[in-house]
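Q: What does the assembled structure look like for these inputs?
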Amino acid sequence: MTLRATTSQTVGPFFSIGMERLNRVELAGPGVAGERVTIEGRVLDADGVGVPDAIIELWQANSHGKYAHPEDLQEKPVEAGFQGYGRIPTDEDGKFRFTTIKPGAVPGPDGKLQAPHIAVSVFMRGLMRRVVTRIYFPDSAGNAGDFVLGLVEAGRRGTLIARNASGMDGVLKWDVIMQGPGETVFFDC
Amino acid sequence: MSKLAGYRRAVAGTQPEYLHPTYKSSLKRAPSQPLVYLPHTLSEITGPVFAPETVNVKACDLTRQHTGEPLGERIIVSGRVLDEDGKPVRKTLVEVWQANAAGRYRHKVDQHQAPLDPNFSGHGYAMTDGEGRYRFITVRPGEYPWGNHHNAWRPAHVHFSVFGPAFATRLVTQMYFPGDPLLEFDPIYNCTADEAARQRLISVFDWESTIPGHALGYKFDIILNGREATPMEK
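A:
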């Protein structure tokens, strides 16, 4: 190694100036295969107050479990209308909402498939580098044996799994709790 | 499928911790639990790919986005995006945003009394070329006061957002200017323990990229996490 990775710095409060051009709250274009799902929630600070200046980025496979990326060598179809990228700023109450398709399963390091999940980065004023987390889906049979969920102590795994919203078909709830009781699991990525 | 090579982790001290009491906004937002080590899977060694067609070549000239010319000193900010082995990171998206020459952002939350400039929006983007190079034409951003502590001022800086080849390489940072007397007092700049790592956030004055009679040049190379050696097949 000859060089060292550049130090991260906070996005600060004014990131929308440079980042909003690539905001994306609808990840799947028309005709993209898969089960449509809306995920909504809030980013909350240690006092349970919504964070109004956070921005969430998403990365996921399509419904076949294929990433639109040259290093995904699986023989599965990519879809023209699905990049797998999302970027959603929070509103003044810390709320966010996006619509996508439920990803298919992708391979894990143990040779088994990982349970369907979305890779998540969260940036905000006050955070010197992003936090990395994942969104898993309720009722996925694979969650119980998932390699990454298995790295997390059982009592905290629930912070990574979206919940069914009562009375709202196709809507899932998932919050990001930065600090304190119910703190979301964040990864060293 | 063959085994996948992950990306390297930060060397101790070269990346900021989350909690910095001197940076007030971190107090209620920094995670308190230890991070869970995530081995890189296909989900982390892939990441969003942006087609070059989505990049407008005018987007990298922040001085030509309006009918008139912005106020301030014109500068060229250029450099390369490389990995830790010095290999160019090609065709990756670089986003920038900054205050105007008076130290004011075009943003509703910015209440600093310095004037807005109708001819400066303060955002740009570029895609690196085959050698990992990028280049922006802009104005030198002003320093500005903020509410972190009594008489707090941010040093002049440009925000950078870079994707790199994978989810694991995503980076958001800030570029500073050489000789800025405010750096020493800035809690954000000083959040990183390693002094050499901090200093790499300071651009270098660069005669070569200067445009005679028009703009001074500053060079800022951005280094993304390098690749682990490819695991050997058994």
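The mean pLDDT of chain B is 95.
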